[in-house]
Specification:
The chain is mainly α. It contains 16 helices and no strands.
């Protein structure tokens, strides 16, 4: 299913807006569940909802395609979230947030390697790279929010970069799957393989099947938000946006998440916002525009059209 570009951009912005507030829900759930338990509950419930919404099951087309779905589940679910969550145990949140925000920049290189045809047809490489670096500089200012404190930790920083790399590869995988299937089907299959890829982790960190904390309406509501909105709906919208905009342009929208997160933090929990953060948000928006603006037709093409 392919949507128009304006709708795809709207879906991408709406998705990153939802993702920018998920940290609040995750923070609440961490008071009663481990990161692994939250991940399993979140994607299991999301898969169930998508299975009900789109119950059509297909026979696997090929082993290679199933492997692609498996990679999508591992990169976009297990590796990304576990890498980010465990990075926070070793490094400062500001460091992790900044390093994870390099995902769009890493996507540029992933697209050059795995999707060379898309790379050639997209925004010129120099402008894309310049816009991405400008947006990343804005993200740095926004994340630091005037404090300019970064704690270097090899383990935590490596896990954060692993998470960013994983998301870049997930975007490439979804793009390779293309428009041959309905986004609900693609997302459901990816969530299934997210749970499959979690099996080795469960051997080390078992999941307790204790749902008594969910009697608390607040915890239940946060889990429902993560599963139904931030996973089911948001991933479907994001995958549709990728197939229309391409991997690079879609992932550049992710640069907006730190600014949106800071905004919601200020509105919901009263976190202060400094002029440095506001300037960073402005740089981020400018960088995203520069990296995502459509390619201008060459003079040769214009002459031919004339």
């Amino acid at each position: 299913m392919r949507v128009t570009k304006p709708i795809a951009y709207a879906l991408a912005v709406l998705t990153v807006t939802v993702w920018s507030v998920t940290f609040l829900s995750t923070k609440e759930l961490l008071s009663s569940f481990t990161p692994v338990e939250i991940l399993v509950y979140r994607f299991a419930l999301a898969w169930l909802v998508l299975a009900i919404a789109h119950p059509k099951f297909r026979r696997p087309a090929s082993l290679g395609e199933e492997l692609t779905f498996l990679l999508g589940g591992a990169f976009g679910g297990a590796v990304y979230f576990l890498g980010e969550n465990y990075a926070l145990r070793y490094s400062l949140a500001s460091s992790v947030s900044l390093l994870v925000s390099t995902a769009p920049l890493l996507t540029i290189f992933a697209v050059r390697v795995f999707l060379p045809r898309e790379a050639e047809a997209s925004t010129p490489a120099k402008r894309t790279l310049a816009g991405s670096l400008l947006a990343l500089a804005g993200v740095a200012l926004t994340v630091l929010n005037g404090r300019f404190v970064l704690g270097l930790n090899p383990v935590g920083d490596a896990l954060a970069l692993l998470s960013a790399s994983s998301w870049a590869l997930y975007t490439v995988v979804v793009r390779r799957l293309g428009n041959g299937y309905h986004p609900l089907y693609v997302t459901r299959k990816i969530f299934f393989y997210t749970l499959v890829s979690m099996v080795p982790v469960l051997a080390i960190s078992p999941v307790r099947l204790d749902f008594t904390p969910l009697r608390d309406p607040k915890l239940l509501g946060n889990l429902a938000f993560l599963s139904l909105v931030a996973s089911s709906l948001a991933y479907v919208a994001w995958n549709a946006a990728i197939n229309t905009l391409g991997a690079t342009k879609a992932n550049n929208i992710i640069y907006l998440i730190p600014g949106l997160t800071l905004l919601f933090s200020a509105l919901i929990i009263g976190e202060p916002v400094t002029p440095v953060a506001v300037a960073g948000a402005g740089l981020t928006v400018g960088g995203v525009w520069l990296a995502s603006a459509p390619r201008k037709p060459s003079r040769k093409k214009e002459r031919k059209a004339a």
